[in-house]
Structure formats: structure tokens, C-alpha cells
């Protein structure tokens, strides 16, 4: 993170500045699409975006990639205790939490959004599948919708936040549903199926068939039809999110539009691969990401 970004955000003190730099590195390493989009934010808003991503990613890692010999339940409980300190005005020693605490104070972020997020992380430790989209809604709210709501004060709005909130939540939901489609194989390896099982069953797809496709690398028309339906449903969520972009401050719109375009581009790649997501991880090519970013940057400068 450049000194100009930290200065623009009014972040002082060597330790706190280093904490934000740490979050930026996490974002750059793990969140290629989101990180690229944040480059379009005003300088003063970028550190907060990195802090929020850094916290979410760190919590997610406790569940999906725990350190050998650690208990994810204990780790999440410990993190929840640290959040108490964050919202009580304490300055945590952990750099990610230190940056988060500063961001929470600057933007007066709601504790409930973070509690809901940790609740969904705990669900990942016990729930291995969901029957319907209605059943999945609680998980998506905490794991994704609240991220959009956390970002909303950072992005700023030209209308009351309550008016912009549904679209902000829908954006998080769209990104999460896209992740579910892209990561079907990886999630299956962890014992999880996020795509609702009754929806899959309507196309003749069950866990056994998915495992077969994962292990053999072969395709199946039933899986293709089920994923095509899920892609179409997810695109409808993107449309609900997109109507909220004009409700944001003008300087924040290029970032969100770019993130939306690139993330929805993953759905394009899934379709172009003939829905081969079980034996590979599809992604938007770097060349396409750079083209979308460059166009947005040119428009912002103009």
C-alpha cells in the first residue's frame, strides 16, 4: 500500500499503517478480482476495503485451511472474543484486527454484520448441504450479504443507506453464488455441497454423481443442465445488484461495476467451459481482467 493511500485516509502511526499494509497483501494474494477493482476506489477508501477483506479472509481460513493441530471451533470462538475488544474500543495486537478496529471506528460499522459473518463460518463446521435456496439464505446472509453491507459506508451513497442496502446485499450474494458454482469440486472435497440438493435432484444430480464427475474428470448432461439453471438464477441476482450502482457515490461506481463485471465473467467462463467445474477451476483470463480494468480506469479519468 502506498504512503499516499494511507495519508489520504488519515492513517497515522507506524504500527497501524503496517497493519493496513498487511491486509492489502492478503487481498492482493487471495482476492485477485476484488483487489483489482479496489484500485479504482479513491485513495482514501482503499485501506478500509483491504481491512474488511483481510478480516473476512482470515476468518475463512480458520475454517477451510486450519493450522495443523488447531480446532476451528476454538479458533472462531477466540476470534469472536477479539471482536468484543474491537467494538469496545481496544487496540488489538493482531495486525488484521488492528486495521479492522480502526476501520470499524472510522465508518461506525455495525457489530451485527460481523456476528452474522462468524455465525456463517460456524455453519461451515456442521452443515454439509442445503435442501433449498430458502435454507441457504441464512448462510448467504452471513457469509456474503453482510460483506456488501460492510462495504457500503466505505463506498458511500447518494441516497439514504437503507435504500441502497438491498442492492449491496445482493452484490455479496451474487459473488457468493458465483463462488459456489466455480468451486463445486473443491467444496465437494471438503464434504460440502452449497448448490441446493432439491434443485440438483430435479435434474437427476446427487452427491454420488458429483463425486463421480470429480474423480473421473468426465462430464454428464444432467450436471450441465443443473449448473446452467444455477448460472441463470445467479445472473438474475446480479441484475438486482446492478441497479444499486447509481445509488453509490460517483467516485465509487467504477470499482463496483468492475467487480461486478469481472465476477459475472466467471459465469461466462463456466458456460464457455461447458460447465466443466468439477475437474478444474475456471477463472477470468488476466487479459480480460486487464481490459475491463483499463476501460473503467479510462472512464474514471475522463
Describe this structure in words.
The chain has about 300 residues and is mainly alpha-helical. It has 15 helices and no strands. The protein has helices spanning about 5-10, 15-30, 30-40, 45-65, 70-85, 95-105, 110-125, 135-155, 160-180, 185-190, 195-200, 205-215, 220-240, 255-270, 285-300. It is globular, with a radius of gyration of 19 Å. The mean pLDDT is about 95.
Low-pLDDT residue intervals, each spanning 5 or more residues: none
The coarse silhouette is: globular
Order of helices and strands: HHHHHHHHHHHHHHH
Structural class: mainly alpha
Which range best describes the helical content: under 10%, 10-25%, 25-40%, 40-55%, 55-70% or over 70%? over 70%
What oligomeric assembly is this protein in? single chain
Approximately what portion of the residues adopt beta-strand conformation? under 5%
In round numbers, the mean pLDDT is 95
| Rg on CA atoms, Å | 19 Å
Largest sheet: none
Report the span from N to C terminus. 25 Å
Question: Could you provide a short overview of the structure?
Answer:
This protein has 302 residues and is mostly helical.
